Each structure stands twice: as structure tokens, then as C-alpha cells.
Amino acid sequence: MSGSADSPDGDLELEVVIVSYRCRELLRGCLTSLLAHPVRSGAMRVHVVDNDSEDGTEEMVRTMFPDVRFEGLAENAGFSVANNRALRRTTAPSVLLLNPDTEMRPDVLDHVLEVMAERPDVGMLGCRLVQRDGSFDHAAKRSFPTPGSALAHFTGIGRRRGAGARAAQYQAPHVDELSVGAVDAVNGAFMLVRREALEQVGLLDEGYWLYMEDLDWCYRFHQAGWTVLYDGRVAVMHAKGGTAGRHRALRQNVWFHRGMARFYRKFQAGRNPVVDLTVYMGIAAKLTISVIRSTVARRVAAGLPGRRGIGL
Question: How much is the pTM?
Fold first, then answer.
């Protein structure tokens, strides 16, 4: 890395935090890409917190990437808890939360740090995320969900080509994929955070086990008066679903929808009891449908009959 784990804190320009869970080979690719494309303008320190993968992740990191600061947890504590373990130890002016299913590209880190230096109003910055096939990951930039925009997104109406601005609102269509602009939220796969903003806003909400914690964090950055910026001029590869799997397991499905309910309850509920009840019922209905679809899809992928019951 550009600067080892033993670099003096005063020399650090960036610290990268990666949380892993049973994704050893993806993590290997991510760390290899960081080694190939580090920050050139200063020292960089990388932290990996592993959620009890039991797949040889620790041995791989310690053997192949000895400069990485590794911490293995005794259980799968979730995304927020694991990130916060490393965030509490960081001291650099900028911290990057990076998914292990990403791969860095040349000059990205220096570019985003330069933008952050030029824009003191920006507390968090995300870049363009590109999937392995070269297609744009629309989750790279988002608007905060409303009942209407969430319904349009999850039914697929808002994701169709040519969808109107209101239907496609969740994907922040006001900022083009290749341009730069303020958005409500960027994706937790790549979140560059300013130290001053982090200290003001605080850590990730550990009430989220997996999913929605990045949206929550962005909302709190806005509440504190910081700009969340999307920069589409640079990109990293994101093997979307690489860590969670192509089809969510039951626990993941439950926590995804619990996260939706928690976000709504924290920031949007309380204005109209009828709307609140409708939203919670909608989340419950979507959970039921998602569990059925994911279970059938996993059975089909495993070569099992898709309609012979639902084994969870």
C-alpha cells in the first residue's frame, strides 16, 4: 500500500475500511486492486474487519497483505457494527468505506480526494459503480425513498427505460451517470467521508444489521448540513451481489425489510397514522413476496423443484 500499517498517523491521507464475510476471493481481488492503484499523494492505511467468515480469509490477508490491519470478529455482527469497529480506530482526514466486491481503478482515489479538498462543503462522496459487464449500477446514486417512489422502484416501473422523473425518483435521475452533482445518497460500496463530518455526524447506526445503514448515514449527513456528492467522472468495478449472494437468504431478506421499516420509522413516520400503517403493511407484503421468490430461485439454482414447498 502507499504507506504501511505502521505509517505515522500524521502522514496518513486516507484510511480504507473493508468489511468481509465469506468472500475471500473477492476480498483478495479488492485488496490486490488497492495495492495496484493506491493513493499517490500521501500514505494510505487499509483495515479489514471480518465477520467470522471461517473460510481462510484471515490467513489469506495476513499472508498476502501483511500491511493491512486485520480484525476478526467472533460472530457475524453485521455491516454497521463491523465498520464501526474500524472507524473508531481511524485518524486520517478522509475515510473510505469500501465493499470487498469492488475493484479499484487507476487514479480514482487521488481524484476523489482532490474533489474533497476543493469542496469543503462535501461531507461524503461516492463515485460511479460499474458492474462486471460494464453496465451502470444505478444504486450508486439515490434519492431518499418516499412511499410512492419506493413502490415504483420495487415494482420495476421506476427502473424501466423512459420512466418519468417522478417514477424514477429513487435513482436520482437529476444527476447524469457521468456527471457530478449533489444527491440524497450514495452507495455503501464506496463512501468517502470527511473526518470533520464523521466526528459531527457519528458512526453508522448499529440498529441495522445489513442494508439501509448507508441510506440512514447519508440522511444524517444531510441533517447536519453536509453535502453528499456523486462524481460520475471516475468509476470502480462493483460485482453487485457478490458478498450477499445472487438471491438473499431468509435472514438477509428479513433484515433488508427491517431496515426499510427502521429508516421510515426514524425519519418519515408520525405524520399520518393511516399512511404509516399502509407503509408497514406494504413492507410486510414485500417481505413475504421476496422470501418466496428468493427461496424458489435458490431451489431452482440448486437443481431442486421450485414448486415443492418452500424450504427456509
Answer: 0.85
